[in-house]
Amino acid sequence: MAVSAVKSMYWEVFPPMPTKRVYCTPVYQDRQLFVFGGCSETGLPLDKVEMLDVVSQKWTGLPSMPTPRAGAAVAILNKQILTIGGMNEDQCPLGSMDVFNMDEGKWEKKAPLGQPSMGITAVKKDGKVYALGGMGLEAAPQALVRVYEADRDHWQPLPPMLTPQYAASAFLKSNKIFVLGGRQGKLPVTAFEALDLETKSWTKYPCIPSRRAFANCAMTEKCFYSLGGLQQPGPHNFYSRPHFVNTVEEFDMEQGNWLKQSRSTRMREKRADFSVGHVGGRMIAAGGLGNQPVPLGSVEGFNPVKRKWESLPPMNFPRCSCANLQVDNMLFVIGGVEQGPSNAVEALCDRESI
Q1: Which of 21, 23, 226, 239 is placed for a possible disulfide with 249 were both Cys, Cβ 3.0 to 4.6 Å?
Q2: Which of 137, 128, 144, 79 is nearest to 108 (CA)?
């Protein structure tokens, strides 16, 4: 894989969103960035939808969602944008699905999930949307797996996950959906499992070696990674309080196990609740929380050839809890928290790929 020079990496700053928000959900199609819902400065879910035309760099307000929601799952099927689940104004999970028709500029109600869920992990493949896990009533983690078939407007149940969880990381690789991490209440989950979409069966893989809250996961062609996070006190460490870590744990798909950790592959900065993606042949870690009184602006990239992390240009707006979106060879970092909810939008780009 070609790795771009550090000097070719830069942040493109877009006009700020009209609405400051955190826990919003973005999608991207045809050079248009759509941002749905989220939480406002008062902590209440929003019904606002805003669209950035990346070419003209102008924001447009779109018709509001019928249901205010934060932490919803969003997916595009053809010219329809599905907003699934999330949290309502009473801080309860939602079971409804609203669909925005891009051509008509109108919303309509579609088949509900069946059970209220927030923190769903959504994956799109072959014109279907898979909704995995979520948090139900009374913060109960769910193992539910459902697939939406648009032509029938129907959610079909599939075999449940082996581990109930919400806010997990999911990756599509050939005909499998791999699910890593997530949470059960305030506790981080170390489960690593995959759903085979042909056999409709789950396979359990060796768990993530260490338990860290607000860690992040990433995938390359041959490996899965669990990065950073907040290490909780436990029987295997002597810290008396939670602490940020720069841990990098790597699962080799060919060997089928987690590789022994190397000091040289640890991130340069200890961080949690940060943004991840891939730009210029590198795995990216941007912003988040660390051993500073304010969110981090630092950015680093893992060079797979040198097997080490390299410092990259910092974010213009240091933030944590951002919505991040991988688009081709760009990593959008959207909203999040500075001192309060942010309206900043920027994207890490690579001049060599332009």
Answers
A1: 226
A2: 79
Which amino acid belongs to residue 150?
A
AA identity, residue 250? E
Q: Digits of tens for pLDDT over the chain (354 positions)?
A: 689 999 999 999 999 999 999 999 999 999 999 999 999 999 999 999 999 999 999 999 999 999 999 999 999 998 999 999 999 999 999 999 999 999 999 999 999 998 999 999 999 999 999 999 999 998 899 999 999 999 999 999 999 999 999 999 999 999 999 999 999 988 999 999 999 999 999 999 999 999 999 999 999 999 999 999 999 776 665 556 889 999 999 999 999 999 998 888 999 999 999 999 999 999 999 999 999 999 999 999 999 999 999 999 999 999 999 999 999 889 999 999 999 999 999 999 999 987
| Residue among 27, 90, 20 nearest 54 (CA) | 27
Q: Answer yes or no: are the C-beta atoms of 13 and 314 closer than 8 Å.
A: no
What b/e string do you get for 5-28 counting C-beta neighbours within 10 Å, with b at 16 or more? Answer: eeeebebeebebbebbbbbbbbbb
Q: Say how many C-beta atoms besides its own lie within 10 A of residue 317's C-beta.
A: 21
Q: What is the DSSP letter of 117?
A: B
CA-based nearest residue to 139, from 83, 87, 74: 87
Distance in angstroms (rounded) separating the CA atoms of residues 323 and 147: 24
User: What homologous superfamily is domain 65-207 in, according to CATH?
Assistant: Kelch-type beta propeller (2.120.10.80)
User: Given CA atoms 251, 252, 255, 259 in this order, what sign does their dihedral have?
Assistant: negative
3-state secondary structure of 7: helix
* Secondary structure of residue 250 in the 3-state scheme: strand
Rounded CA separation 117/63 (Å): 24
d(CA 348, CA 9): 7
CATH fold of the domain at 10-17+210-354: Neuraminidase (2.120.10)
Q: Pairing between strand 32-36 and 308-312?
A: unpaired
Domain ranges of the chain: 10-17+210-354, 65-207
Angle subtended at Cα 117 by Cα 344 and Cα 323, rounded to the nearest 5 degrees: 15
